[in-house]
Design goal:
CATH architecture of the largest domain: Alpha-Beta Complex
CATH class of the largest domain: Alpha Beta
GO molecular function, one term: oxidoreductase activity
Distance between the termini: 10 Å
CATH topology of the largest domain: Quinone Oxidoreductase, Chain A, domain 1
Shape: globular
Protein name: Trans-2-enoyl-CoA reductase, mitochondrial
Subcellular location: Mitochondrion
CATH superfamily of the largest domain: Medium-chain alcohol dehydrogenases, catalytic domain
Number of domains: 2
Keywords: Mitochondrion, NADP, Oxidoreductase, Transit peptide
Strand content: 15-25%
Family: Belongs to the zinc-containing alcohol dehydrogenase family. Quinone oxidoreductase subfamily.
Radius of gyration: 23 Å
Length: 472
């Protein structure tokens, strides 16, 4: 683990968050076995998430198939056998986050899975956990598990950084073996070389580093998707009410509950960047605003400090508490500040649900749209009859996995756009939001690895990111 003094020293000069990781020069050794964090079919709903995972050691000749399904109990019909591929690629895991969606998959409460598999008859059926991760091409191997020297490939070389192009690949592992035809650029190939170079150096000289790249496919892409919708909805309103030739003078607002979440903070930063979707921002101008909603802290003083922190990190225009959002009197006082102003509360993004959405609904303009991408309160979204009849408010779901599945090329565009925003210092992550878990490949026992991942699953308040240290 990186010492606190080294973190503090490197943080001053680093553009990205690579200083959080214990980065060392890595050798190109070939593993005899690969360690995977896997989960089985959850028979008892009361079983805690962290108790439904285990370490599974697989041969470097075993390739886990990618078989998408919506059924958490679906099982691959064939027993796995060593691959016969004459050429294989060895991917070395750099890092992977532990996302809420990963936990939901383990619990059997998500909308997408990979079919469970079995290597030996005595095994219980399992899937490798995880949907997001960052890898590096370590070597090209022959059937004997030997490195093919000076191997030439049209799209890949040793050292290239790749990410999963599709979901359900199983990212929680120290290495990954694939037949050579399984990495590539089209929809039949699940891994993609990151064309926007990822900074893997300890110095962190570019914005798009390990943490940024490892979390871009889910949180980053969700935030970018919302920024696209915000610009699109504002543009449509202007076209409908003013005509394209007029100069826009309307301020458009988007509410975001869970204002301290990574999606909300990145969303607001992207909104205030020079990023323009389909050229919409050139027409809208500097009139896109965000309102972040947070839960109160323990004391008013702590809440005030927290608000200042959120405003600084997210660049959001306004921060309000859930009390102001949900209390009808306080909510009216807040909205009175906008009287006689040319404003339109055109959109909201929701990952909380329940009374938080009801509070937001009262403050939205006619024809506004509410996008739900999570439900942290475990309470549903209940829309009022008034909002439907008199305000024509539309409630929609947003699931980045489905969006990428329907448009194969979109993920590539999103990652490149995010890389550009990180490199230009227009968006950034907060180191304080993350807890680094170091997986030491050479020294950690299976029990130690399992314990670390279980602690990450149980972690509250911070977002766990697993860094795979291949040299200790």
């Amino acid at each position: 683990m990186v010492s606190s003094s080294l973190v503090a020293r490197n943080a001053k000069n680093s553009i990205n968050k690579n200083y959080l990781f214990n980065i060392k020069p890595s050798s190109n050794s070939i593993p005899s076995t690969i360690k995977n964090i896997v989960y089985g079919i959850k028979e008892e709903r009361s079983t805690p998430t962290h108790e439904n995972i285990r370490v599974y050691n697989s041969s470097s000749k075993i390739v886990f198939p990618i078989r998408p399904t919506t059924d958490p109990k679906a099982i691959f019909s064939k027993q796995l056998t060593p691959t016969r591929a004459s050429e294989r690629v060895l991917l070395k895991t750099i890092a992977f986050p532990i996302n809420p969606s990963d936990k939901n998959q383990i619990d059997g409460t998500y909308g997408a899975y990979n079919e469970k598999v079995r290597v030996f008859k005595k095994d219980s059926d399992f899937s490798v956990a995880g949907n997001e991760g960052l890898y590096q091409v370590q070597a090209f191997l022959n059937q004997k598990n030997e490195i093919i020297p000076d191997f030439e490939h049209s799209q890949y070389k040793v050292g290239d950084v790749v990410i999963p192009l599709v979901g359900n690949t199983g990212t929680w592992c120290d290495y990954k073996i694939l037949p050579l035809h399984a990495i590539g650029y089209d929809k039949y190939k699940p891994y993609w070389r990151v064309t926007s170079e990822v900074d893997l150096t300890p110095e962190g000289t570019r914005g798009f580093g390990i943490l940024e790249a490892a979390t871009a496919a889910v949180n980053g892409s969700t935030a970018l998707g919302f920024a696209n919708l915000f610009q699109k909805n504002a543009f449509k309103h202007l076209r409908r009410h003013k005509g394209k030739e007029n100069v826009n003078k309307t301020d458009f607002y988007c509410y975001a509950n869970a204002g301290n979440s990574q999606v909300s903070k990145l969303f607001s930063q992207i909104v205030h960047s020079d990023y323009s979707h389909m050229g919409y921002k050139e027409y809208i101008g500097d009139h896109l605003k965000t309102i972040s909603i947070i839960r109160e802290r323990s004391t008013p003083e702590e809440t005030e400090e927290f608000i200042k922190r959120i405003q600084k990190e997210s660049k959001t225009d306004i921060v309000i508490t859930e009390t102001i959002n949900q209390d009808k009197g306080k909510s009216k006082e807040f909205m009175d500040k906008f009287k006689d102003q040319n404003v339109n509360f055109v959109m909201a993004i929701n990952s909380v649900g329940g009374s938080s959405v009801s509070g937001i609904e009262r403050k939205l303009s006619a024809d506004a749209k509410v996008y739900t991408y999570g439900g942290m309160s475990l309470k549903g979204v209940v829309a009022s009859t008034t909002s439907f009849i008199f305000k024509n408010i539309t409630y929609l779901g947003f699931w980045i996995t489905r969006i990428f599945k329907e448009n194969d090329s979109l993920k590539l565009k999103y990652i490149n756009s995010l890389a550009s925003l990180y490199d230009s210092k227009q968006i950034s992550l907060s180191a304080d939001d993350y807890e680094v878990i170091e997986w030491k490949v050479k020294s950690d026992s299976d029990e130690a690895i399992l314990a670390k991942i279980q602690e990450g699953i149980k972690l509250k308040g911070k977002k766990p990111i697993v860094y795979v240290n291949h040299e200790e």
